[in-house]
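Example record

The entry below shows one chain as it appears in the dataset: sequence first, then structure tokens.
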Amino acid sequence: MAIQHELLQSAGPVFTTPAGKATVMDSTQGAAASKVLRDEAKDLLVISPYTEREHLLDLKSLDMENAILAQALCRLECLRPDYATAPYIDIFNWGEIIEQVNRLAQQKGHSWKGSSFFVVAFRSQIPPTTVYEDLGTLDKAAHAEATASGGFLKYWFGSPDKDGKNLATCVWRSQEDARKGGIGPAHRRAAAAARDLYSHWKIDRHRLIIRDNVESWEITDWA
């Protein structure tokens, strides 16, 4: 079941005239507009710590395999405190995620087709001089940009440890989607700031493979 943004679920319709003045709608118009918003919210998924509208994934933009995985990834949890340095396969509850993929496919009466997904792990270290809020501002803008580009299924990031080391990870529909999501102006600004904000960073690429009927799965290095 999709995690819906609470503000979207409860928000009422906002209408203005071309001059920007609010108009008064009759009850029929208001009910119809509210239904449109509720229907839209059903297809919007929170995929990151950012919950504003521009950060939500529209499930209607995905095929069934990608939509199911995105929904299952809402249960992604970090299993160990040393995530900044631990082997990637051991950091998250991947077994539970795959079980949820299988469960959702069965609930929808869908025969899962073997699929692979592009996974990025960004390992970094910041010096004591870095203001973490500055990183957050750049990161949030880049996330909205990546979401708008399409195929961005999940984003998770931790907090720096005592040595300033951290991990962020993304799951994409494809490597091409990831490439498109990383070429906009917000990503260019973040890349330009990296030299000053990080003392070290490394990007690892992985492939998540879920085979026909969710009979098996694995995470491998991207090749």
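Notes for this example: The longest strand covers residues 115-125. Residues 44-221 form a domain with the Alpha-Beta Plaits fold (CATH 3.30.70.100).
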